[in-house]
Write a structure and sequence with these properties.
Strand order of the largest sheet: 5-8-2-1-11-15-16-14
GO molecular function, one term: acetylglutamate kinase activity
EC number: 2.7.2.8
Organism: Paenibacillus alba
Function: Catalyzes the ATP-dependent phosphorylation of N-acetyl-L-glutamate.
Largest sheet: 8 strands, mixed
Helix content: 40-55%
Family: Belongs to the acetylglutamate kinase family. ArgB subfamily.
Number of strands: 16
Distance between the termini: 18 Å
Structural class: alpha/beta
C-alpha cells in the first residue's frame, strides 16, 4: 500500500482498525509512505530552499537531512503509533535499515541532486518482519550500493519497487479522491477499471487534469515486475481496504 503524507493526516481511525482486522484474518499490509507537505513545511521553518523538477524535489545534503528527519522520524512513527492504538503490531523502518532499499542516482541527478531510483529491495527482511507478526511501515529513503550515500526516493517509485520485489500482484494507492472520474451524461462517475493506454488518452482529452495527472502517473509507475494492477481509493471510505481485497468494486483499478 502506498499512502501519501498529506492523506495520512486525514485518515480516520477506522482505516487503521480495518488494517488490524485484515491482519487478524491473515492478510498483512506493507505500507510505503510519503510526506511531501510536512517536508516542505519543515524546510520552510529552517529557511532551506528546495524546488521541484518534474515532480521530484531538488535534494541537497541539507535537504536530505530534513527529508530523513521528517519521513523516517516524524511521519513514520506517527503511522506506527496510529496502527498500534488499534491493538495491531507495527514496525517502522526506512530504506536505510538493513539495506532495505538500495538506490542509484536518477538519470537527471544533475538537475535534482540526491534523488534515487531503486535498484534492489531486501524482500527477505520485509517478509521476516511480517512473519514475526508486525505490519511493516517503510519510509522511502535509500542507500547507495556502498552503503555510504543516502538518497531521497519518490514514495510512489519506492512503493512500486517494494511491491514488485515482494511479488505481490496488487497494490493499493490511498488518496483523498474516490478514484479516476469521468463525466458521463453530465455526471461525474468513478471508472471501475482503466488500462494504462486509456489513462494516457484521458490525459490528452482533458478528462484527467490538474492534480489528478501526477496521481495517475505515479500509480502507473507502480505497475512493474509482478504487480498487475493498482487500485486508487479514498482512504476515508469505511472499510476501504477490506472492500478492495474482497473485490467489491470500490475505487479505480488500473490494469496493464
Amino acid at each position: 500500500m502506498k499512502c501519501g503524507g498529506s492523506t495520512l493526516a486525514a485518515l480516520p481511525t477506522s482505516f487503521f482498525e480495518d488494517m488490524r482486522q485484515l491482519q487478524v484474518e491473515g492478510i498483512v499490509t506493507v505500507i510505503v509512505h510519503g510526506g511531501g507537505p510536512a517536508i516542505s513545511e519543515t524546510l520552510g521553518k529552517l529557511g532551506i530552499e528546495s524546488g521541484f523538477v518534474n515532480g521530484l524535489r531538488v535534494t541537497s545534503e541539507a535537504v536530505l537531512d530534513v527529508v530523513e528527519m521528517v519521513l523516517s522520524g516524524q511521519i513514520n512513527k506517527e503511522i506506527v503509533r496510529r496502527i498500534q492504538l488499534t491493538g495491531a503490531a507495527a514496525l517502522g523502518l526506512s530504506g536505510v535499515d538493513g539495506h532495505l532499499i538500495e538506490a542509484k542516482p536518477v538519470a537527471n541527478s544533475h538537475e535534482v541532486g540526491l534523488v534515487g531510483d531503486v535498484t534492489k529491495v531486501n524482500a527477505e527482511l520485509i517478509q521476516g518482519i511480517v512473519n514475526m507478526g508486525y505490519i511493516p511501515v517503510i519510509a522511502p529513503v535509500g542507500l547507495g550500493a556502498d552503503g555510504g550515500q543516502r538518497y531521497n526516493i519518490n514514495a510512489d517509485t519506492a512503493a512500486g519497487a517494494v511491491a514488485s520485489h515482494l511479488g505481490v500482484e496488487q497494490m493499493v494507492v490511498v488518496t483523498d479522491v474516490p478514484g479516476i472520474m469521468k463525466t458521463v451524461d453530465g455526471e461525474k462517475q468513478v471508472l471501475p477499471v482503466v488500462s494504462v493506454a486509456e489513462i494516457e488518452e484521458m490525459i490528452v482529452s482533458g478528462d484527467i487534469y490538474g492534480g489528478m495527472i501526477p496521481k495517475v502517473r505515479a500509480a502507473i509507475a507502480c505497475i512493474q515486475g509482478k504487480v498487475q494492477e493498482v487500485v486508487i481509493v479514498n482512504g476515508s471510505e469505511p472499510n476501504v481496504l477490506s472492500k478492495v481485497l474482497k473485490g467489491t468494486g470500490i475505487g479505480t483499478r488500473i490494469v496493464r
